[in-house]
């Protein structure tokens, strides 16, 4: 973004970073919400992809095949609003997550620079540490909203939770505080390498691409897409495990997929999926996930950079007018 070649982590005040991060998360989430619902529905399917006999125990659950057929099925059975199920907790999560993530990322990287002084870490290592730390903090802080997003998106025509308030009340009463953190281990285990890989890749590609002739400043978006595809593919099995664990509890058999097994723990869930569904089962929904995460990351980073620049320009103009 910067003409002088500054890095993302060096730019803007804390307030500007929070506003830009929250705005980027809000816009990106609304755009990719339908793909997120499709991804979750695919991830929660438990029949074997290679064994037709496993289809017998679906208990009336739909069989989704591919992104477009899944979208058509949801539109036919649940209407257009079905593609935005869970969007309210998801919007709250994305706004909070983005603000916390960018703020933590900036704080940690500046702290690392001060700590090491002249012997500053290589940019890739600095970005990896800051990105991983920022992802872990933001994931933990917003995890209950992530869980609610998944449970709403997993609902079919039967309403399990009538509203966001009702869902919080029901989970607290039936499952206790731990119910809001089902699968947190997989979430943190996924996000640390994901954000580390994402930010280190993004920072590595961002400056070289900014010197190329991309239209509308889309070099940032291109760097975001490439970084997201690489990071998402690397950690996708943990994302799937997280989704399976998030729908555990007393409502497990009432979601659109009524045959979700009872899972306990990340490694036992991993073993169970490989045993019953094969290794391919760990990558259900990867294609739509890449379709989702690539534009989401592109929109997030492009919006973040643009909003941050606007805020910084406004501050500069205010200072100039104050001097005059």
UniProtKB/TrEMBL annotation:
Membrane topology: Multi-pass membrane protein
Family matches, as PROSITE patterns: SOLCAR (PS50920)
Gene Ontology annotations for the cellular component aspect, listed alphabetically: mitochondrial inner membrane
Organism for this UniProt entry: Cadophora malorum
GO molecular function: thiamine pyrophosphate transmembrane transporter activity
Coarse class of the protein's main subcellular location: mitochondrion
Solcar repeat segments: 12-111, 122-208, 215-310
Gene3D superfamilies per record: Mitochondrial carrier domain (1.50.40.10)
Protein's recorded name: Mitochondrial thiamine pyrophosphate carrier 1
Biological role: Mitochondrial transporter that mediates uptake of thiamine pyrophosphate (ThPP) into mitochondria.
Pfam family, one: Mito_carr
Transmembrane segments: 17-38, 179-201, 221-241
Similarity-based family: Belongs to the mitochondrial carrier (TC 2.A.29) family.
Lineage of source species: Eukaryota, Fungi, Dikarya, Ascomycota, Pezizomycotina
